[in-house]
Write a structure and sequence with these properties.
Elements (H helix, E strand, L loop, with lengths): L1 E9 H8 L4 H18 L2 E6 L7 E6 L2 E6 L7 E10 L3 H9 L5 E6 L5
Antiparallel strand pairs: 1-5, 1-6, 2-5, 3-4
Helix pairs in contact: 1-2
Length: 114
């Protein structure tokens, strides 16, 4: 079964990505995590995302389409990246989510391709 792990990061996390003094430490956590996924042979696809400032949200209202710069939700954490893993069950997916170098990870089972 495949599951998507969605990693949510704070403004501080996004800032650490580009701060010369914190970038190496930030990336080290992710490098270790991604390497473990690859070594376990469960990685299907993964990608980090640019910060929320680069986002655009498309909304449909009454048949009209509106584009808003930035992310739609105004929350303390934003989606920072995803990883699709192929594991036997939800418990295993949750174990991998718990190993991520962020505080919040949403886990969802993927709908099988037709």
């Amino acid at each position: 079964m495949t599951y998507t792990l969605m990693f949510f990061e704070s403004e501080e996390d996004f800032a650490a990505r580009i701060d010369p003094e914190r970038k190496q430490e930030y990336l080290a956590g992710w490098t270790h995590y991604v390497r473990a996924i690859k070594e376990a042979g469960i990685g299907v696809f993964g990608s980090g995302l640019f910060g929320p400032g680069s986002a655009a949200t498309v909304k449909r209202r009454g048949g009209e389409i509106a584009v808003q710069d930035g992310p739609f939700p105004e929350t303390k954490e934003q989606l920072g990246g995803i990883y699709v893993i192929d594991v036997p069950d939800l418990d295993t997916a949750l174990e991998w989510a718990a190993r991520a170098p962020v505080d919040t990870v949403e886990v969802r089972q993927n709908i099988p391709a037709l």
